[in-house]
């Protein structure tokens, strides 16, 4: 069996090496680059692909996979919004993902960012750089005095709810597909508008779909409490960034923590030190002292990375040896 893994970082290599050392007659090629127009032709001669990227998996890549005889594409992450799923089906390429490599990783990061927002850590850090050690005006609220709205109660949303409850927050939630346990706890609001109206902070934990493109826009911001805090560790396209800027200017939104940004691809996970960033919307958000931007790192823990590598490799291996498709994203009959 021959597998090729793309987008392999140094921190992932030990897990790849350990996994392959336990297999016989298995060749594994590790490629640091992502799948792109420049690298896609490297798949020739392999049986399966194991990849991780937020850049698009385009139709022509699936055409090339079919032509090269690739039997499975196993992604090492959760989100599938960057994959042309129709093209995968049309070209008979089954896809697997890793749906729960560590919901706690993202949940803990969500709480970290919420705490940083309410404790004004960016403002205090900036003041202290100038040896300004005064308290005022950056007084904080407390999580146990807040109502937090959780949108999306899947794996990550549920992990966030547990942590918030542990901290004593009043938690309310919205999800079109309600979870029975949470329903019994009476956490769900009757409508998403009720969540907007009641929440001091709103945290997003749902996938990016066409229907939810710019779900947070000038109209939805109007329905929220004045000074609401927004946390987005889900996907950047859920928020209309220009509308967010207007809402921050007016004070409608009191602060935001963005681990994902709708135009993040040319910026996140690149070293742009000393370079001009040609994205005025990003630059506007980045310089604000009540906006925390992080480069899509909520997932980035050793536990999560180990699981992403091992589970994705297991999915590819199982499919190629038994035909059984674990964690199916695209199923081919
Ligand atoms: P999940 O599939 O387990 O749960 C998603 C939930 O969202 C589901 O219960 C679904 O019913 C709900 N949902 C769908 N549309 C909704 C809507 N309009 N309003 C409210 N809820 C809605 O997914 P998950 O594993 O919990 O992942 C959540 C998000 O986090 C995804 O966007 C994923 O890509 C993202 N993510 C980000 C990182 C990161 O590093 N920042 C890491 C992993 C996952
Ligand atoms: C995901 O797993 O969907 C993430 O957002 C993590 C990222 C490395 C792609």
From TrEMBL:
Keywords: NAD, Oxidoreductase. Coiled coil: none annotated. Residues 112-298 form the D-isomer specific 2-hydroxyacid dehydrogenase NAD-binding domain. It comes from the Bacteria. CDD domains: LDH. One of its GO terms (biological process) is L-serine biosynthetic process. It holds the Pfam family 2-Hacid_dh. GO terms for molecular function: (S)-2-hydroxyglutarate dehydrogenase activity; D-lactate dehydrogenase (NAD+) activity; NAD binding; phosphoglycerate dehydrogenase activity. Residues 8-329 form the D-isomer specific 2-hydroxyacid dehydrogenase catalytic domain. Signal peptide: none annotated. Belongs to the D-isomer specific 2-hydroxyacid dehydrogenase family. This is D-2-hydroxyacid dehydrogenase. It comes from Candidatus Ligilactobacillus excrementigallinarum. The lineage of its organism: Bacteria, Bacillati, Bacillota, Bacilli, Lactobacillales.
